[in-house]
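Forum: Protein Structure Q&A
Topic: Joint prediction for protein chains with partners

I've read a bunch of threads here and the consensus seems to be that you should model interacting components together rather than docking separate models afterwards. I'd like to see that in practice. Below is the full input, 531 residues plus whatever partners are listed. Could one of the regulars post the assembled result?
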Amino acid sequence: MSSTRPAHEQPEMHPSRWGDPARAGGLPDGARGLVEMVFGVHERPALDAVTLPASGLADDLLESLRAVVGADHVHTDDATRRLRTRGKSTPDLLRQRSGDLDDAPDAVVRPGDHEEVAAVLAWAVQHHVAVVPFGGGTSVTGGLVARREGYAGLVSLDLVRMKRLLGVDRTSMTATLEPGLRGPEAEALLAAEGLTLGHYPQSFEHATIGGFAATRSSGQASAGYGRFDALVVALRVATPRGEWRLGTAPATAAGPDLRQLVLGSEGAFGVITEVTVRVRPVPAERRYEGWRWPDFATGTEAMRTLAQAGLLPTVLRLSDEAESGLNLAHPDAIGQENADGACLMITGYEGEPEVVEARRAAVAAVLEARGGRCVGAEAGEAWVRGRFDAPYLRDALLDVGVLVETLETATFWSRREAVYDVVRSALQASLGEGTLVLCHVSHVYETGCSLYFTVATPGGDHPLERWLAAKAAASDAMTAAGATITHHHAVGTDHKPWLTREIGELGGSVLRAVKADLDPTGVLNPGVLVP
Ligand SMILES: Cc1cc2nc3c(=O)[nH]c(=O)nc-3n(C[C@H](O)[C@H](O)[C@H](O)COP(=O)(O)OP(=O)(O)OC[C@H]3O[C@@H](n4cnc5c(N)ncnc54)[C@H](O)[C@@H]3O)c2cc1C
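Posted by a regular:
Agreed with the consensus. Here's the joint model:
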């Protein structure tokens, strides 16, 4: 098959908000009263008319960059540079909203294929310019905030033009995609072939294939389809030392799996220019439903039973008492009373009808035996309808002065309860009274699970400082308890101070050695990931 491009491209996000600007809205009716009561409302208009620091790239450097990719693909205007400044964490949004655009790139360069990416890297090495690979810009860990001191400038290497489905191998059930394809664009191209990737992180609408690989992303259907790193079979990477192709067989004993050095490398080792992924047929049936549990501990034990029995549905998640009480799983119903009792679990099944039916029956038998009560399809369907909406709600809450942010970790089942307790306590202690800490189990494995926390608290006069202190306390607590600093958000700059606690000084030294080999002059994402 010849390569194809998406028929419809995803819109650009607003520079200081999440998602499609056309979908931005205020607080849902049910939520406004609750917000007023719990947090108070202090309207915080964002500063949208701000001036950027002038581009610091010398004219002759810009001229030579234009010669590499064409003048149409080098941008120095304020609007484009602003759209490529930082990611979409709450600290990123708070900084943008306060008019702080100090991290803006000097230029945005948009190569069209692997060769142009390689040529941009060669240009960057020659002139010692820092390069930040930019996918969807949905990083929540400071992965797009590179150090610029000591460099002749900093450019955002925007992969937005690289959006082709390059090929499908139907016999092996793999597809090769370019890195700039956003989630819906990749799914639309694959759907035209009767295929799906099945990777649905909450940032699905704007994050890219290259970004998923570079951050080891995990989607909401990871129980059925697997984490993104588990889907990748081959990679093509442009590095300052040349092209690197990895992945020639479904499995190999040819030394350590070097694909794993690229997966999660966050633009510090090279630019991913092609990703070959395992694909599946578009499911003939999708079925979602809700279950209620008397408490979080009983529900998580049931999840463990399912995972260890090899009986996972495609989607499996469980909200704790606080999150279930708030109806966060479907934002339209926020503030409405839960007649059904404590904790809400969502189960989803995708595949051929008979497989869906058989798996559902087997899972339901376990859940009933462990004390769960099925509350039907409506709860599941409501979750599906609202599953990409929460980031819009965060914007609406920031608008009225409520600080909202999420953080996540993973741990073994034997430590699940302890990690849950220490992280919650650290957040509560740091942020004080009037703080809501919500949690759900978002991904499960045979040996453990991830815990995803959402925090809402009055922002006060210094919301950014308030959050950074709370995040540090939570990060200390999770690493002291032996949990990972991140299950799927990656390291970026925000988690870097905790990385060697997890991988050891030796691990840090290995990362530095790889960086020194692949990027000897250090132009790629300086300051990101590598301790
Ligand atoms: C509201 C919201 C919800 C989210 N939900 C989830 C979730 O459910 N699951 C999840 O896993 N994550 C989630 N995230 C985090 C984020 O979406 C993921 O980390 C995502 O994989 C990043 O993809 P991106 O294309 O936006 O990458 P970017 O943000 O553009 O980049 C991320 C990092 O990867 C590097 N990079 C990007 N593209 C390439 C490339 N082609 N080659 C080399 N390096 C590259 C960048 O330099 C940067 O360091 C969420 C974020 C937000 C804001």
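Residues 18, 87-88, 132-140, 143-144, 159, 179, 201-203, 207-208, 210-212, 214-215, 217-218, 266-267, 271-272, 391, 488-490, 525, 528 surround flavin-adenine dinucleotide (CB under 6 Å).
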